[in-house]
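Quick start: what a row looks like.
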Amino acid sequence: MTAGGDDDLFDPPGPRGRRRIAVATTVSLAVLILLSAGVVYQFAVHGQLDPDKWSLFIQPPVLRYLLDGLWATVQVTLISAALALPFGALLALGRLSRTRLLRWPSTAYVEVLRAVPLLLLVYAFLLGLPSTGMRMPLFWQLVCPIVLTNAAVFAEIFRAGVRALPRGQTEAAYALGLGYWPAMRLVVLPQAIRQTAPSLVSQLVRLLKDSTLGYVVSFLELLNSAKVLGEYNHTIVQSFLVVALVYVLVNSALAAAAGRLERRTGRPRGAASARASRATDANTP
């Protein structure tokens, strides 16, 4: 066994191992098919598959309502990403700084915000700030906690990308007469962003999922809109299934974008991507 990338951590299975994997896969698929059939049967028995419960979702007013919820989700995701990405880059540069006055606060922020649950921050903005006399629109009560949490994760992704670059890049920048900060800004950080692009897109998928906490602050993003629609029309199951399908399609598109970015970099998921993935996983409950 070699000490290369993640693919070299385990020896390839032999004939017996492949047979066991094939059997386990077949059994798992069979169990999954049986469970799915059981769920569909229960839906049919309880009338959840009746056409009148599903025809609701092709009515123009309902489609507009759900599209408004989807647009609200997209707005939360885009604005949160636009704020969290540069903030995360600044935090990464702070953690990599040679100055303690920058390195220590940045390190403390990243470690604390990665450990604090996002839901707790949402409640802090929802219940804590009003008690101090500060009131924010519902949109920002959701966006601000998402930005604060995801910036810490983006910082670790950027830092992993910088650490994975060959030292020769920085030394070449110094040889050209650049100082530390110009070298980081013009040479190191752009390459780190390119190296970690797939992991950044993967974190954007998690950020999109974070927007589902809009129900806590009564913000009508897609999931909360489906909840309201289902309660009003007594189609809770149908509404959640339709919205789940929308999330699957959106996340699949983002995952495909991450795959294309990874292929365009012309490298396997090596040190930078692996470290960045561990940084994002550390923020996942």
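That is the whole record. Confidence is low (pLDDT under 50) at residues 1-7, 268-274. The radius of gyration is 23 Å.
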